[in-house]
Design a protein that fits this description.
Layout (H helix, E strand, L loop, with lengths): L2 E5 L2 H11 L1 H19 L7 H10 L3 H8 L1 H14 L3 H7 L2 H8 L8 E9 L2 E11 L6 E8 L2 E9 L6 E4 L3 E7 L12 H9 L4 H10 L6 E6 L4 E6 L4 E4 L6 E4 L11 H10 L1 H14 L7 H9 L15 E11 L4 E6 L8 E2 L9
Parallel strand pairs: 1-4
Antiparallel strand pairs: 2-3, 2-11, 3-12, 4-5, 5-6, 6-7, 7-8, 8-9, 9-10, 12-13, 13-14
Helix pairs in contact: 1-5, 3-6, 4-5, 5-6, 8-9
Length: 360
């Protein structure tokens, strides 16, 4: 998995991203279009550009993003310019979590994500599988983002996207789990923008406040880890609730809410009939059963290396979704960033560093 340096103003960061990954973005968008149209079935429009335009005009998602995160909107426009793609396509592609409830396609591949954040000697570690529709395979990339308006940040992303999960040089990491059964809002802040907005903070309290103060477009769990501690938030259209961290300093989360009751009953029924809710419960139970084995970052990594673990998703057995990548962030005196593309037995872990002088 290559890392792309996107350094400078927001617009410059986006243009560098788009130009460096132009061919991969084009392929990713083609695969995404085909998967979207297939998922919609008889409801599929004749014109995909019209679908993207209708998505944007039928929601106020970008209006909220422009109001809260104008820097990220400038970056998004830069990606479209650099990649030679229409802004509408790039914008809707970055509204991945929102597209899941917008389409509400019963046969669409269900996303996943299994997350652990825990206390270790010298600080905390945050690790997760990022499980996404299989059409995204091959678009994995790491972004090293920096500029005068933000702390340098290393992110797992897909070509053309502003980011999925990451860690910044100030010592703050964020992991996520989609919670599709929670209420959504067509005028809320989209998930990708919320992640980057929180990662722009330089401490855990500010990151938590940023997530608590914005209205959210989609149900999502955000885990914030620093050397000093862990914060866990389940956010939806109407609420943003903090989960208590157990006395053992270990947070486990998959893809169903543990505290929030802001439920979309229609979505819950759809997810239950597809087996998505059952899969989430199985993965969480498996993680909970491993508690005694997890005391160091290396032991957490070993857990994610287990090729037979139910937290590893394969497209053939998980309705078209698979483990896109795995991340492990060590938040101690020396920040460690490890990522692995694909599932456990097909790729190796890679270490990514910040640039020299990143904190200057």
């Amino acid at each position: 998995m290559e890392i792309i340096d996107c350094i400078g103003s927001p617009r410059t960061r986006g243009e560098v991203h788009g130009e460096a990954l132009r061919k991969r973005i084009a392929t990713a968008l083609e695969n995404w279009e085909a998967a979207t149209m297939a998922g919609l079935g008889p409801r599929a429009p004749a014109d995909f550009d019209g679908y993207c335009d209708d998505f944007l005009s039928g929601t106020a998602l970008l209006h909220r993003a422009e109001a809260v995160t104008p820097d990220l909107m400038a970056e998004l426009r830069g990606i479209a310019i650099g990649a030679g793609q229409s802004f509408a396509r790039i914008a809707v592609y970055n509204l991945m979590d929102e597209q899941w409830w917008y389409d509400a396609a019963p046969k669409a591949p269900p996303p996943g994500c299994s997350l652990i954040a825990q206390r270790v000697p010298g600080g905390h570690v945050l690790a997760q599988n990022m499980d996404l529709p299989a059409h995204m395979e091959g678009s994995q990339v790491a972004l090293r983002l920096g500029g005068p308006d933000m702390p340098e940040t290393v992110m797992l992303s897909a070509a053309g996207m502003i980011g999925l999960t990451g860690v910044n040089f100030a010592g703050l990491a964020i992991g996520v789990n989609t919670l599709l059964m929670l209420e959504h809002a067509p005028d809320g802040l989209p998930v990708a923008f919320a992640v980057r907005h929180a990662l722009g903070a330089r401490n855990r309290a500010t990151a938590q406040r940023r997530l608590a103060e914005v209205g959210h477009a989609s149900g999502q769990h955000y885990a914030i880890a620093t050397r000093e501690g862990i914060t866990s938030l389940e956010c939806s259209a109407r609420t943003c609730l903090a989960l208590p961290i157990p006395d053992n300093g270990r947070l486990l989360h998959t893809n169903h809410p543990l505290i929030s009751s802001d439920i979309d009953t229609t979505a819950l029924a759809r997810l239950g009939s597809s087996g998505f809710t059952k899969s989430s419960a199985i993965r969480l139970s498996w993680l909970a059963a491993q508690e005694d084995a997890l005391t160091t970052a290396e032991e957490v990594q070993t857990l994610f290396d287990d090729p037979e673990a139910p937290i590893r998703m394969r497209a053939k057995t998980h309705g078209g979704s698979s483990t896109f990548a795995t991340v492990l962030y060590s938040m101690t005196d020396c920040i460690g960033v490890r990522m692995r593309q694909d599932i456990a037995d097909t790729a190796r872990w890679q270490e990514f560093n910040f640039r020299e002088g990143a904190g200057e």
